[in-house]
Specification:
Shape of chain A: flat
Distance between the termini of chain B: 55 Å
Strand content of chain B: 25-35%
GO molecular function (chain A): ABC-type transporter activity
CATH topology of the largest domain in chain B: Rossmann fold
CATH superfamily of the largest domain in chain B: P-loop containing nucleotide triphosphate hydrolases
Strand content of chain A: under 5%
Protein name (chain A): ABC-2 type transport system permease protein
Number of domains of chain B: 2
Subcellular location (chain A): Cell membrane
Number of domains of chain A: 2
Structural class of chain B: alpha/beta
Oligomer: heterodimer
Number of strands of chain B: 14
Organism (chain A): Allofournierella massiliensis
Strand order of the largest sheet of chain B: 6-7-8-3-9-10
Structural class of chain A: mainly alpha
Largest sheet of chain B: 6 strands, mixed
CATH architecture of the largest domain in chain B: 3-Layer(aba) Sandwich
Radius of gyration of chain B: 24 Å
Number of strands of chain A: 0
Order of helices and strands of chain B: EEEHEEHEHHHEHEHEEHEHEEHEHHH
Helix content of chain B: 40-55%
Shape of chain B: elongated
Membrane topology (chain A): Multi-pass membrane protein
Distance between the termini of chain A: 25 Å
Largest sheet of chain A: none
């Protein structure tokens, strides 16, 4: 595991990518720190961090796109999978290297509250809690994007799918507000989702009847639920959407709270994504 | 050393490896021979734990490749068809990484890496980036990586493909050397390579193991007996009659007649040496013997016959294609032998090829 970690981390900084990505993060960090904390007078550094959260939508997919996609393309996964290292070791080695890459700018950010301390007003606790929350949020996004890079051998596709997923996740809170109880929009969304699910079922099982069956049964159930228990249906749906909004829990830290729930949520996302990554690698050997 | 039982690998409806079982003994060089797409690489990928079999088991040194993956993989050094190299590293960095990956102790790493580089002739390239190395050197880096950790078994998938003739010679002599203290399994579709390098040959066609044994055994197994090619001075009838008087001779075939000389092929029962009797009989009949050679089936013939039995028409094409390719390496082997100052028994194969070519030529002349 440590061999993979070291190689991976070194290779980012032996090329231009590592320096470029770190530079971009530091540039935005410095910019928003100056604007929000030094000029704007906010005492919580999390506010600066939150203002350029959107940069993560680019930074993280670019960071993770190479991870497994490139190994598959250049067939170096053959070396890893035939050496006496477990799949867990491979996944953790790779993940920790990405995490370390992200930790470099975050470590530099954690000096900023000290600058504020020298200049006067700072809420140290809220600032450092915010940095911790920010790191966990990034760690969760990295885990998701790393999983996506196991699904393809094309780095560009890995980066685009990572960007797409993070973008949808970022926009979810505003999408969520569209679904009010009894709205036709909610029903339409459900039907679209149902259609997608039955299409996948139909394609995977290569059976038109099964796909159509799933759709018909689902549609009848949905219509009944929609007409009788509309509120339950929409609230269940919005809470599912809420769970997929990766950037939302971090807001608690921005509001000056130390949210254990948020950290647990991020940890959960990380564990699930790493598990799926391991499964994806394992599955490749059986295909 | 390695036990493979009822190995089957399915890709969807395609059966890449079909119920293969074999055993690999320690300290022997094995050759996996078969036309392209026969399932050689798939078999090797399963042996090394890169792919999982659909059914069947593989155990290496007593460790099951699935149950005790770590222990089993630690016994194997693998060079896949395309060496798995990180091109942004130098050979030294890469080999140090692989050594660590293979859990070589920190104190031994540098020594082992240097040893592997020396054996594969990489010392002068150790600090260049792999992306700037030629195919031959990349192959060597892959081979050096397979040697790290001093594995008991070394598995090489088509180790000489795409190399220039001089590199082919070097890699082959390295493999021979490795065979002295490792178990080596190599795959190839070049017959001359397998017959010179390997102690045992496994022939695979269409995912099935169609034959295994030493190259000589395989050649023998397929001929009911061997044959004698004889050229004698005299008319065909006289030669024929003289030969048929020799006990044990059942079938005589005239292959050519020229300037009063007759060439014939005599089928001889397995295990009998009739050379003395035949030449005595011909001398007694007043037909002096001008030439007498023993012909046994070459690995090439065996391969053709077996793959044809497996219903593989492509094998023929590949073999033809190979004969063109094979000219070079085979010639080079003689150069190599001359350089090494040793004479290899594989001279026989060359001779006999010449003999059959001559026979064909003569047949053509007759017509």
């Amino acid at each position: 595991m440590s061999a993979i970690f070291k190689r991976e981390f070194k290779s980012y900084y032996s090329g231009m990518m590592g320096w470029l990505l770190t530079g971009v993060m530091l540039l935005f960090g410095g910019l928003y720190f100056t604007a929000a904390n030094l000029q704007g007078g906010y005492t919580n550094f999390s506010i600066a961090l939150y203002s350029f959260v959107i940069v993560l939508l680019i930074f993280i997919p670019l960071l993770c796109m190479r991870s497994f996609a490139e190994e598959k393309r250049s067939k170096t996964d053959q070396l890893l999978l035939t050496s006496p290292v477990s799949i867990t070791g491979i996944v953790l080695g790779k993940y920790l290297a990405l995490l370390a890459m992200f930790a470099v700018p975050v470590a530099i950010f954690s000096l900023y509250p000290l600058i504020m301390l020298m200049l006067g007003g700072v809420d140290l606790v809220a600032s450092y809690a915010g940095i911790l929350g920010y790191f966990f949020m990034g760690a969760a996004c990295i885990a998701v994007c790393m999983y996506l890079s196991t699904l393809t051998e094309n780095q560009i596709i890995a980066a685009l799918s990572g960007f797409g997923v993070l973008l949808v996740s970022y926009l979810l809170p505003s999408i969520q507000t569209l679904f009010t109880t009894g709205s036709g929009l909610a029903m339409a969304a459900f039907v679209v989702i149902l259609l997608a699910v039955s299409l996948i079922v139909g394609l995977r099982s290569r059976s038109l009847t099964l796909g159509a069956g799933v759709f018909v049964v689902g549609f009848v159930l949905l219509t009944i639920l929609f007409n009788t228990r509309s509120a339950v249906l929409t609230s269940a749906f919005t809470s599912v959407l809420g769970a997929l909004a990766l950037f939302e829990p971090f807001l608690e830290f921005v509001n000056g709270l130390f949210s254990v729930t948020a950290l647990v949520y991020y940890l959960g996302v990380i564990v699930l994504s790493l598990f799926l990554t391991g499964q994806a690698l394992e599955k490749r050997r059986w295909n | 050393m390695i036990q493979v039982e009822h190995l089957t690998k399915r890709y969807g409806s395609h059966l890449a490896v079909d119920d293969i079982s074999f055993e690999v003994e320690e300290g022997i060089v094995y050759g996996l021979l078969g036309p392209n797409g026969a399932g050689k690489s798939t078999t090797m990928n399963i042996l090394t734990g890169y792919l999982s079999a659909s059914s069947g088991t593989v155990s290496i040194d007593g460790h099951d490749i699935l149950e005790e993956a770590g222990a089993a993989k630690a016994c194997v050094g693998y060079l896949p068809e395309q060496p798995p190299l990180y091109v942004d590293m130098t050979p030294r960095e890469y080999l140090l990484f692989v050594a660590e990956l293979k859990k070589v102790k920190r104190a031994e790493r540098i020594e082992q890496v240097e040893q592997a580089m020396e054996r594969t002739g990489l010392i002068e390239m150790e600090n260049r980036l792999i992306k700037n190395l030629s195919k031959g050197y990349r192959q060597r880096v892959g081979l050096a990586a397979a040697l790290l950790g001093n594995p008991k078994v070394i598995i090489l998938d088509e180790p000489t493909v795409g190399l220039d003739p001089a590199q082919v010679i070097e890699i082959r002599s390295l493999i021979k050397e490795l065979g002295k203290d490792h178990t080596v399994i190599l795959s190839s579709h070049i017959l001359s390579e397998v017959s010179t390098l390997c102690d045992k040959v496994l022939i695979i066609a269409k995912g099935k193991l169609v034959a295994q044994g030493t190259p000589e055994e395989l050649a023998q197994r397929l001929t009911a007996g061997s044959a004698l090619n004889i050229t004698a001075l005299g008319e065909a009838d006289a030669v024929m009659n003289a030969l048929l008087t020799v006990p044990g001779v059942s079938e005589v075939q005239i292959t050519g007649q020229q300037n009063g000389e007759t060439s014939v092929t005599v089928q001889v029962p397995q295990g009998e040496d009739l050379r003395a009797a035949v030449s005595a009989a011909l001398a007694a009949a007043g037909c002096p013997v001008l030439g007498l050679t023993t012909a046994s089936m070459s690995l090439e013939d065996v391969f053709l016959q077996l793959t044809a039995q497996a219903g593989d028409e492509e094998a023929q094409e590949i073999l033809e294609e190979q004969e063109e390719d094979a000219l070079c390496p085979e010639d080079l082997e003689f150069v190599q032998d001359a350089v090494e100052g040793t004479v290899q028994p594989d001279g026989e194969i060359g001779q006999e090829d010449d003999a059959s070519a001559q026979a064909e030529q003569e047949e053509a002349d007759e017509k």
